[in-house]
Specification:
Shape: elongated
CATH class of the largest domain: Alpha Beta
Strand order of the largest sheet: 2-1-6-5-7
Structural class: alpha/beta
Largest sheet: 5 strands, parallel
Number of helices: 8
Strand content: 15-25%
CATH topology of the largest domain: Alpha/beta knot
Number of domains: 2
CATH superfamily of the largest domain: SPOUT methyltransferase, trefoil knot domain
Bound molecules: 6-[(cyclopentylmethyl)amino]pyridine-3-carboxamide
CATH architecture of the largest domain: 3-Layer(aba) Sandwich
């Protein structure tokens, strides 16, 4: 997968190209990356990429021409036309499902805005506007890097163990189960007995039940669009009946 960023701050992307599992995956050629600085594509001698907004008001706006030239240049480096994504609080909210969908693309171009935003006309060159959620940060770079990490870790070979990504929160539509490592007892807090039992069928069932319990209590909104196995829906029924009887006991 060939990922490109269009950004005034190319050095920021070292955070994903040089660190951690995603950085290692780049060294192992599981993905390619380059950043294009729109400053390369200005026609004015001083290299301005921003200008004052028509209609007045605070701040500066990124000019259309250098951004569009940068997008066109990025496309020439792709083996086939890549999706152009613009990071913006006005976009569709990103999620595991979006990450999964985008992980199947052969290339992606992340357009990172700064200042008050980009000239609206650039959006005719954008395929999707995506947001991490209802908040604003100073530039599109951090949201872009977050999405790139989320997308790449779903690709085969990027995480050492193939099962890792499948067991993460959201992969099966549920929250992850609790994790423990040595020591078995720490400040009087004991690791659940079942995890020391060596009974793998029992451990698997306990983890599934914990995932379901956490989802019921922390993120009940996730339960509506689940595709559960027979075992899971049996456990969920038990958990919900338990909760219902707690509630009625309270009323009495
Ligand atoms: C995206 C971009 C937040 C998000 C951003 C988000 C840069 N902030 N919620 N900031 O995903 C004006 C110029 C704001 C681009 C934009």
């Amino acid at each position: 997968m060939h990922i490109q960023a269009i950004s005034l701050f190319p050095e920021m992307f070292c955070a994903i190209t040089e660190q951690g599992v995603i950085g290692r995956a780049l060294k192992n050629k599981l993905w390619q990356f380059n950043c294009i600085n729109p400053r390369q594509f200005t026609d004015n001698p001083l290299g301005y990429i921003d200008d004052r907004p028509f209609g007045g008001g605070p701040g500066m706006v990124m000019m259309a021409e250098p951004l569009i030239k940068a997008i066109e240049h990025a496309q020439t480096q792709q083996s086939k036309p890549a999706k152009v994504l613009y990071l913006s609080p006005q976009g569709k909210v990103f999620s595991h499902t979006q990450a999964k969908r985008l992980s199947k693309e052969s290339g992606l171009i992340f357009l990172c805005g700064r200042y008050e935003g980009i000239d609206e006309r650039v959006l005719t060159y954008v395929d999707e506007e995506i947001s991490l959620g209802d908040f604003v940060v100073s530039g599109g770079e951090l949201p872009a890097m977050t999405m790139i990490d989320a997308i790449l870790r779903l690709k085969p070979g990027v995480l050492g163990d193939e099962l890792s990504a499948q067991q993460d929160s959201f992969a099966q539509g549920l929250l992850d189960y609790p994790h423990y490592t040595r020591p078995a007892s720490f400040q009087n807090m004991d690791v659940p007995e079942v995890l020391l039992s060596g009974n793998h069928a029992l451990i698997k069932r306990w983890r599934l039940e914990q995932s379901l319990r956490r989802t019921v209590t922390k993120r009940p909104d996730l339960l509506s669009d689940l595709d559960l196995t027979k075992e899971a829906s049996g456990l969920l029924k038990k958990i919900q009946e338990e909760q219902d009887s707690h509630k009625t006991e309270h009323k009495k």
